[in-house]
């Protein structure tokens, strides 16, 4: 599942009229890099969770990846990341589903993340990125087995692990829960329920970028050429 329905308000002045994941990076849409990453990692079926300017995404995918095995799940109104995942899971054919944010790129090995998820019988497994000298992200705490033991709010940190925006989740467990129609996967599920669920994290010190703010969007132009 690729979450690609957000409004992208912080980037709207930089790339006006364009859905955030469609923002051009070195002449191609940012979404191009995400799809190519998933194909390299062996993903064979794609669910695009779309809403705002969904037509841009559908047209791009049909033209750029015409043979892709895909389905588009459309939000008629913003449902939050949790609502979007829950709706998209209705189109998933397997129980174990990888979920990605459409505005972040994290060059991890999905097989390693999946192996940890399965071996630990986790409800959800998060790809985590070590960062230094940052204040834009909250941090995640792990114990020695990789079980998530806490989340900390955004503040300046000399070092810490951040949520890299890639998850493995179990469809049957997640859909078997009661959630509101609109909710945040991060706030209402991960941060509220980690103590009662088997939520794990795996650390990858690989290339990571979030294009949600202009500064990092411009940085992506220089850094992401090798992933095209």
Description:
The protein is of the alpha/beta class and 228 residues long. 29% of the residues lie in helices and 30% in strands. It contains 7 helices and 13 strands. The strands form 4 sheets. The protein has a 7-stranded mixed sheet, sandwiched between helices. Strands 2-3 form a two-stranded antiparallel ribbon. Strand 4, helix 2 (54-64) and strand 5 form a beta-alpha-beta unit. Helix 3 packs across helix 6 (185-193). The mean pLDDT is 92.
Helix content: 25-40%
State Rg.
17 Å
Proportion of residues in extended strands? 25-35%
Q: Characterize the largest beta sheet: strand count, sense, and whether it forms a barrel.
A: 7 strands, mixed
Query: Quaternary arrangement of the chains shown?
Result: single chain
Key words describing this protein structure:
13 strands, 7 helices, 228 residues, two-stranded antiparallel sheet, seven-stranded mixed β-sheet, alpha/beta, 29% helix, globular
Summarize this structure briefly:
This protein is of the alpha/beta class and 228 residues long. Helix content is 29%, strand content 30%. Helix 3 packs across helix 6.
Blueprint (SSEs and pairs):
Layout (H helix, E strand, L loop, with lengths): L1 E3 L19 E2 L2 E2 H11 L5 E5 L3 H11 L5 E5 L5 H10 L6 E6 L2 E3 L3 H10 L4 E11 L4 E4 L5 E5 L4 E14 H5 L9 H9 L5 E5 L4 E3 L3 H10 L5
Helix pairs in contact: 3-6
């Amino acid at each position: 599942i690729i979450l690609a329905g957000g409004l992208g308000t912080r980037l709207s002045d930089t790339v006006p009229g364009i859905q955030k994941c469609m923002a051009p990076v070195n002449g191609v849409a940012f979404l191009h890099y995400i799809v190519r990453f998933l194909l390299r990692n062996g993903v064979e079926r794609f669910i695009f969770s779309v809403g705002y300017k969904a037509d841009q995404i559908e047209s791009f995918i049909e033209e750029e990846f015409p043979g892709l095995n895909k389905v588009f799940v459309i939000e008629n109104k913003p449902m939050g990341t949790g609502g979007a995942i829950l709706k998209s899971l209705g189109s998933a054919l397997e129980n174990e589903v990888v979920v990605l944010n459409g505005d972040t790129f994290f060059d991890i090995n999905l097989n390693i993340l999946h192996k940890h998820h399965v071996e630990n019988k986790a409800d959800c497994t998060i790809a985590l990125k070590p960062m230094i000298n940052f204040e834009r992200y909250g941090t995640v705490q792990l114990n020695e087995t990789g079980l998530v033991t806490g989340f900390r709010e955004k503040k300046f940190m000399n070092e810490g692990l951040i949520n890299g925006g890639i998850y493995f989740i179990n469809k049957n467990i997640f859909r078997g829960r009661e959630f509101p129609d609109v909710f945040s996967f991060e706030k209402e599920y991960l941060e509220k329920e980690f103590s009662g669920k088997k939520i794990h994290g795996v650390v990858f010190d690989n290339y990571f970028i979030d294009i949600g703010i202009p500064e990092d969007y411009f940085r992506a132009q220089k850094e992401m050429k090798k992933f095209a």
